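Throughout our pipeline, every protein is held as a single compact record rather than as scattered files. This encoding replaces a full spatial description with a residue-level series of whole-number codes. The remainder of this section carries one protein's record, kept here as part of the documentation.
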Amino acid sequence: MIVGSRGSKLAVLQAELVIERLKRCHPGREYVIKTVKTTGDRQLQADLAEIGGQGVFVKELELALSNREVDLAVHSLKDVPTQLGEGLTLAAILEREDVRDVLVSKSGQGLARLPRGACLGTGSQRRAVQLKAFRPDLVIRSIRGNIDTRLKKAFSDELDGVILAGAALARLGWQDRVTEYLPTELSLPMVGQGALAVEVRADDDDTRAMVSVLIHEATERSTTAERAFLRALGGGCAAPIAALGTVTGEVLRLEGMAASTDGCHIIRAWHTGAPADAEVVGKALGEKILDMGARQFIEKVER
């Protein structure tokens, strides 16, 4: 089985994690990783919105799948557009890692104790608007690059720290570098954050069946609701969007956020339903937030 992956250290590690779990269930199979350079990898200094937004880390992997150069592709679910490539499907969403954003600060101080006017780096507008809502005095600088590159910038002269996804540091075994885990009440995560997805060709029944053993039902339901929420707001919406679904017993609770790019308007709301109705829950929350006023600034960004 040829497994497609981006070439970064984290992406390859995630592909290896998927392979390790597949080997436990299908020990007779042999797996080989084929790395594919994506648009997002080639243009590490460019603004993501300018080079295509959501999807810039998966398009070339999807092309490799469609061309039968790989049998399956491993993605960070947060990078996967709500509209997949033609003839492709997500065969499994694995159990989620920690969904929280984290602060890595040069001084070792938490977010509330950083000095006035402290400068933090992030490539995410979603994080930026929520950080500024908590502390308007913060200076937010846009940074890009692989996670190790961004980590080094936390200790550079121009920054006091960086905000990263806790799941990425956990998978790399770098939890000791975390200064503070940010509560989701302060920084609601990106849709799909912390989850891995395996994409295959829709007509490849054998591979779909093989990969299905990796499905984690609660994570699948939660992220399905989150992706339906994003789709209701406009799919690859350029406005800052966040969502987090959680399944407790027979209840799926979805919290969502939409903001204007300048951070002047931030709307948060939640909706609940049955886990089996994840799509319905996500769509309902999306429509609710649009009706609360998000439609105006989302449409403005899209134009």
About this structure: The two ends are 43 Å apart (CA to CA).
